[in-house]
Amino acid sequence: MWNMRKLSFSSKRRNEVKDENKYTESEEENVCIIDWEVRPGGLLVQKRIGVSGEANFVAGPMIKIKVSYDSCYHDLTVPAESTFGDLKKILTDRTGLHPTVQRLLFQGKEKDSNECLHIAGVKDTSKLILMEDPASKEMKKIQDNSVSCEAIAQVKVEVDKLSHRVVTLEEAVLKGMKVEDMEFVVLSELFMIQLLTLDSIESDGEARTQRKEEVHRIQSLIDMLDNFKARNSNLISNCAGTSLVTTKWETSAPNRLQQSTKITQEWELFD
């Protein structure tokens, strides 16, 4: 699909009205709309309406220019009489930058959007520099940092919930209660998921610091789980009725110990 560009300007049009072989002329001001089409390769073509009412495209004198942005170069072919504003619209498709945050520099000077290329001295093979407006760039950085901090905060909430489970398992192991190994495995995997979530969050400044702290916290909790799991494996299950039963990550009260049977023996005394 071709991307259509529209420019408007004021002009006067004379309408001739024929009435009984007499002509009267009237002058009125109208707004004429000119459509622009961006073809593959950055070619900007003007669309005009002919006498027959059919659309036809008039390119006019074309020039090839090179625009530098970041570490990339964009080769464009545009009408020599187009404006820097037209050029910004084309560059939006190439760079993703909105025209309002673009700054085009030619021969070391920033150019106004309404200024024409040929008037500014832009010719064939000319080179321009595209920069993002510093204020907009800083604002975008602040917004991105805010989004990152919010995402990290959500991870903290999930880790807090999982950490309560770690405390429950710790208490059970310290009391000598036998815990199913799957409890440690599942919990460790849930912590790993949170680590992967943190790794996918792009962060800078304060957000980077928060992410680093949360990563260390999760790693510490995983180490604790590994220690508890090893200690749990070494427990000697001398009470078959002692176990930790969980349902949907909720800890239920441990079963009561079965009452032991009292065994008595009679001893015979010899003189």
Walk me through this protein's architecture.
With 271 residues, the protein is α+β, with helices and mostly antiparallel strands. The protein has two domains: 28-132, Phosphatidylinositol 3-kinase Catalytic Subunit, Chain A, domain 1 (Ubiquitin-like (UB roll)), CATH 3.10.20; 137-247, BAG domain (Methane Monooxygenase Hydroxylase, Chain G, domain 1). It contains five helices and eleven strands. It has helices at 84-95, 117-120, 134-174, 181-199, 206-233; strands spanning 3-19, 22-39, 43-49, 55-58, 62-69, 72-79, 102-106, 109-110, 127-132, 246-247, 250-251. The strands form three sheets. The chain has a five-stranded mixed beta sheet. Strands 1-2-3-4 form a four-stranded antiparallel beta sheet, with helices on one face. Helix 4 packs antiparallel against helix 5 (206-233). The protein is rod-shaped, with a radius of gyration of 38 Å. The protein starts with a strand and ends in a 20-residue tail after the last strand. The model is unreliable at 1-33, 48-58, 236-241 and 249-271 (pLDDT under 50).
